Structures are given as structure tokens and as C-alpha cells.
Amino acid sequence: MYLLRCGDGTLYCGIALDVEARLAQHQAGKGAKYTRGRAPLELVFQEVCASKGEALRRERQLKRLRRADKLRLCGLPPSR
């Protein structure tokens, strides 16, 4: 499970077996539709999960968090 910070300041949450390879896909414009055109992309958080089901549950948890809580989790300063 991982979080990316997009060039426009938004955060994107996803899951992947190989986060570095998935980040390369996002950066090449072949990742999620959401991240296309939002470069540069920066990996700001990743977490290893025991199974795909656990990763999906954790992703759902993170997506429900407020933006400020997501930034705190990543160790980033609060946005404007």
C-alpha cells in the first residue's frame, strides 16, 4: 500500500506488489487515470501488508482519513 503526492499537491493511494515499478508506471503516464497529468509524483508513504485483502482494507482506511491525518502519517507538514 502506498501514497503518492502529486504535483498539484493532491494525494493518491494505491496498492501494488512492487511499489517502485508501480511508481515508474505512474510517472510514465501508464498508471491510474487520476495521476496522469499530475506530475511530478513523489512516493511519500508505503506500508507492507500481509495479503492483498489486508492491503485493500488498509487502503480503504487511509482513503477515509482527513487530508491532515494523511499528511501527518507521511510526516509531511500540513497544507495551506
- Strand elements, count: 3
- Note the run of SSEs as H and E: EEHEHH
The domain tally reads 1
CATH architecture annotation name:
3-Layer(aba) Sandwich
* Biggest beta sheet attributes: 3 strands, antiparallel
In terms of quaternary structure, the protein is single chain
Shape: globular
Strand neighbour order, sheet with most strands: 2-1-3
CATH homology superfamily: GIY-YIG endonuclease
If you compute it from the alpha carbons, what radius of gyration comes out, rounded to the nearest whole angstrom?
12 Å
User: What is the fold named in CATH at topology level?
Assistant: GIY-YIG endonuclease
Structural class: alpha+beta
Beta-strand content bin: 15-25%
Write out key terms for the chains shown.
80 residues; alpha+beta; GIY-YIG endonuclease; 3-stranded antiparallel sheet; 38% helix
Write up this protein:
The chain has one domain (2-74): GIY-YIG endonuclease (3-Layer(aba) Sandwich), CATH 3.40.1440.10. Helices cover 38% and strands 16% of the residues. It is built from 3 helices and 3 strands. Strands 2-1-3 form a 3-stranded antiparallel beta sheet, covered by helices on one side. The longest helix has 13 residues, at 52-64.
